[in-house]
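Propose amino acids for all 332 sites.
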């Protein structure tokens, strides 16, 4: 594709597609590298009930298909290929993507780049886990807890994210069994106390899930005590994996500023002195383009930035913010 693009979006999912819709409606014809596996984590979900506008819920893959079609309708150009490398050291910004031929890549140039590569859950990597994703295995209790009303559930993990999942489940589930590898939680004291004091919660310490079992849907787990190595079967209707999320930022680590966990730092999270913001970038004391990264013209949105909320609707909101920032920045 010849010429310098106005905007290249790397990644899809609710953040990327929302940005593409806004940028396309602004007549900027964004070029979206959706990747060989487009759609992000929602492609692994079944019914999404908490995305506004769908009172009966909508399948995750269908929601992503709808958003993609809407972006294309307004003029977004989509390529289902992976970005292989980038160069943000000079203008125009450069992005290379695989062409389909083994090892071959093509260079693209843009005035602005938006990174929406998201994050992926850290999995247990045990038998049955991938097989039952969406059929009892989940990485988001806040999203799926309502499906487990009056059912038995298991949460694997011991950090603050796991504590949040546990407490979300206690609103609906009949009980929550926490399986943790250590003899104490890594979570903050206040969160741990809330969980340990809850009447619906039971903790199995020094243990790990070795297998997830089921017949069409999850029916139980095999648990090993890591001290005695005894194994026991535990009945459950759902397994929530809460051992962390890993932002998909390996491609950008030498090109923009990341935090210690690999999430992209935007100007929301950077002090002025750390990125040497020009005075013109400030207006009434606020950063003018809060979704811009440490590199001028490179923006980021969604779960690649968001280490806290990790919801489809917040990712879509981040994408919208970034699109508006890019539109304004290109016009200055």
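Proposal:
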């Amino acid at each position: 594709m010849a010429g310098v693009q106005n905007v290249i979006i790397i990644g899809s999912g609710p953040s990327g597609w929302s940005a593409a819709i806004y940028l396309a409606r602004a007549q900027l014809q964004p070029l979206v590298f959706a990747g060989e596996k487009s759609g992000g984590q929602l492609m692994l979900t079944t019914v999404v009930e908490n995305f506004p506008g769908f009172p009966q819920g909508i399948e995750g893959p269908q929601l992503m298909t709808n958003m993609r079609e809407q972006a294309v309708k307004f003029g977004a150009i989509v390529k289902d290929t992976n970005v292989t490398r980038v160069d943000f050291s000079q203008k125009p910004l450069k992005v290379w993507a695989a062409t389909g031929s083994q090892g071959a890549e093509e260079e693209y140039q843009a005035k602005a780049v938006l990174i929406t590569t998201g994050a992926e859950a850290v999995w247990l990597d045990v038998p049955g886990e991938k097989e039952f994703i969406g059929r009892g295995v989940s990485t988001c209790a806040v999203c799926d807890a309502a499906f487990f009303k009056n059912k038995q559930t298991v949460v694997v993990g011991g950090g603050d994210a796991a504590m949040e999942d546990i407490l979300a489940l206690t609103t609906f589930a009949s009980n929550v069994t926490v399986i943790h590898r250590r003899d104490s939680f890594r979570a903050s004291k206040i969160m741990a106390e809330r969980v340990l004091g809850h009447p619906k919660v039971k903790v199995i310490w020094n243990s790990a899930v070795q297998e997830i079992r089921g017949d069409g849907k999850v029916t139980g787990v095999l648990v090993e005590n890591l001290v005695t190595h005894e194994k026991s079967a535990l009945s459950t209707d759902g397994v929530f994996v809460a051992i962390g999320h890993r932002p998909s930022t390996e491609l950008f680590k030498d090109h923009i500023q990341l935090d210690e966990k690999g999430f992209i730092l935007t100007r929301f999270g950077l002090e002025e002195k750390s990125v040497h913001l020009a005075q013109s970038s400030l207006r009434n004391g606020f950063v003018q383009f809060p979704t811009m990264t440490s590199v001028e013209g490179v923006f980021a949105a969604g779960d690649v930035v968001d280490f806290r909320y990790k919801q489809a609707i917040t990712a879509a909101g981040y994408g919208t913010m970034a699109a508006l920032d890019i539109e304004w920045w290109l016009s200055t």
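Helices lie at 13-25, 60-73, 141-144, 160-170, 189-196, 272-275, 312-331. Residues 312-331 form the longest helix (20 residues).
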